[in-house]
Amino acid sequence: MQMIIYMRNVDMNLLKALDALLTEQSVTRAAHRLDLSVSAMSRNLTRLRAVTGDLLLVQAGRKMVLTSYAMEVREHVHEITHEAYSLLQPTQKKLNLDTLERNFTLRANEGFINLIASTLAKELQEKAPKSCLSFIEKFDKNAQALRDGTLDLEVGVIGTNAPEMKTKTLFRDRFVGICCHKHPLLQNDEITVQNYTAYKHIVVSRKNKSRGPVDIELANYGLERQINMVVPSFSTAINIVRNSELIGLIPLSTLGFITTESNISGITYFELPVITPFINISAIWHPHQQDNLEHRWFRETIMKICNSFPIH
């Protein structure tokens, strides 16, 4: 009875977290089950321990096991959770895409917009012809627009200070170098750190930052890039590189993941002479959209398109 009395003073999400923890007997697996981060589930466990006055899960060698109290209430918790959410979750109407009139809003950088816009437009025209999509340029990672519903979905590198957000990795990107197709760099049999740093470079940064992961790796060789220009967008950098001898650095996705032909409209991309981390590109949305049929169709459509990319 102790747990039921105190549960009146906590949110229903804790009940769902408790059910997952007692079923999975693992913070990591419980987090995966509810599509939460491990740190968020760990915080839930801390709160549940305070609410119940019991440790619930304890370490036993390399794994965690239930306390005697947790074993006693496990089945009851599962039944209560199922009944509570069945009662509180209204039955949704069947989604009719032919008559759907909704303006979806998606915040992303220009590279992703250029990559997906035409394919997504075709999907919307064919499947949901009365719907509309508004792309919003990504100036920051403020999560408030996702919370208040003015933004449906964000795509990019996870960086919001909002642990409650739902996320799904769409694909893995990587940086490549670009130069004009007649650049003297391409006359070398191999692009090394020495000939890569022998030329001037252009950098893309919305915050006027000229250094990044490539420069950290080059520093290990005692070398650095000669930064000649900083611009705010990848499209600007590509146009400048096409008509100059500056060397650029962009995500491969900006070129549409064209991996079979390195010479693209006057520019050539090449693999960097240093190793940089992959970039995990994710879809981010607020939990209040999780079970909305319209939103689910929208994000699943984007996921389907991204699954067709050659890099995952």
Automatic annotation (TrEMBL):
It comes from the Bacteria. GO terms for molecular function: DNA binding; DNA-binding transcription factor activity. The keyword Transcription regulation applies. Residues 10-67 form the HTH lysR-type domain. Belongs to the LysR transcriptional regulatory family. InterPro entries: LysR-type_TF (IPR050389), LysR_HTH_N (IPR000847), LysR_subst-bd (IPR005119), WH-like_DNA-bd_sf (IPR036388), WH_DNA-bd_sf (IPR036390). It comes from Acinetobacter nectaris CIP 110549. Coiled coil: none annotated. Keywords: DNA-binding, Transcription, Transcription regulation. This is HTH lysR-type domain-containing protein. PANTHER family: HTH-TYPE TRANSCRIPTIONAL REGULATOR LEUO-RELATED, TRANSCRIPTIONAL REGULATORY PROTEIN. Pfam families: HTH_1, LysR_substrate.
